[in-house]
Amino acid sequence: MSVDFRMLQSGNEGDHMRSALALARQGLGRVWPNPSVGCLIVRDGVPISRGRTGDGGRPHAEERALGAAFGPVRGATAYVTLEPCAHERKGGSCADRLVASGVRRVVVACADPDQRTSGRGIEKMRVAGLSVDCGILEKEALALNRGFVLRCTEGRPMFSVKVASTIDGKIATANGESRWITGDSARRRSHLERASHDAVLTGIGTVLADDPELSCRLAGVHGGPVRIVVDTNLRIPLQSRVLSTPQAGPVWVVAGEGVNSDKHQKLVEKGVDILCVTRDASGQCDLGNVAMVLASRGLTRVLVEGGSILSASFLRLNLCDRLLWFRAPSLIGADGLAAPGELRVRALAGRIMLERREIIPLGHDCLEIYERPA
After folding, report:
1. pTM, to two decimals
2. Which of 289, 342, 369, 374 has most Cβ atoms within 10 angstroms of its Cβ?
3. Which of 144, 163, 179 is the C-terminal boundary of a domain?
4. pLDDT reading at 269 higher than 50
5. Are residues 130 and 208 in the same domain?
6. Which CATH number does the domain housing residue 188 bear?
7. pLDDT of residue 222
8. Could you list the residue range(s) of the whole structural domain that residue 208 is in?
9. Cβ neighbours of residue 139 under 8 Å, at least 6 residues apart?
10. What angle do CA 147, 150, 151 make, to 5 degrees?
11. Which one of 144, 179, 210 terminates a domain?
12. Which of 13, 62, 154, 342 is catalytic?
């Protein structure tokens, strides 16, 4: 490793766990279907190794950290952002690896919601004689892996809904012009959000109107998120940019059950995965079923970049976990296209309530981050 850990100063428990969380954060969008975990190994107050979950979910953070240690780990303390796995797999579980390594103590930020582990990893290490402490920066660790937690507990991924609008909440002019409401800094941050999500999802309306590529175009970022188009009746043009750029990432098209189209086979021939879901009362793809199907395919974090109708649907169905609102210092007026669309709120008591987490200046624009209350 390029870092000489002997030169690092010792820190307190919170500092070490914050370092482990920073490692885990680097894996967001790259490690699904697994959670992104960070592991820091400390001996005599000095970090001697670190690791995060490998791209694609393997190797696990603990395995990477143990294999890269600067010197012996016997008697050291391992700081792990998520309970080490306990279920059997090739090479043994992470709990087994930590026991066999000779570390004296393990500090765990939060328990693993996966029923295959869920407390068993902690119990296994304690039975083997290790000292195990839990709960340091638990809230931060759960927030970092909110998508994995939701997939384990609710059977769906975390959805981040992105909106780019003027300060009066318009995403386009009356004739549909929308490029570009926000500036370069906001668009770069938008691509960073794509990089930190497993997939980016849009609707067929956006594809027909804007023909987006849905790729992550940041220097130094390799690979890209899964690109998902919700297209109930398979109206997507075969020459659309999202279908013509296979190097930018896999494409999944979500269609309504019973769709009858000769385009189905043509899409398959282009390498597209077609996921069929149930329809709602209006005959469109049922977003609740979409969420379940995406989770069954292993996704934990999905960025929704749709128009006003799709954004409103995620908000109305309480599927929006994070709202990323990019706001430009400009006005369009009442004749512009509003974001989001119809929410069917008939009284103030029924309005959708969110909690604002952060406001980030981005050149002339700003990003407001909201979350659905826990």
Report:
1. 0.92
2. 289
3. 144
4. yes
5. no
6. 3.40.430.10
7. 67
8. 150-371
9. none
10. 85
11. 144
12. 62
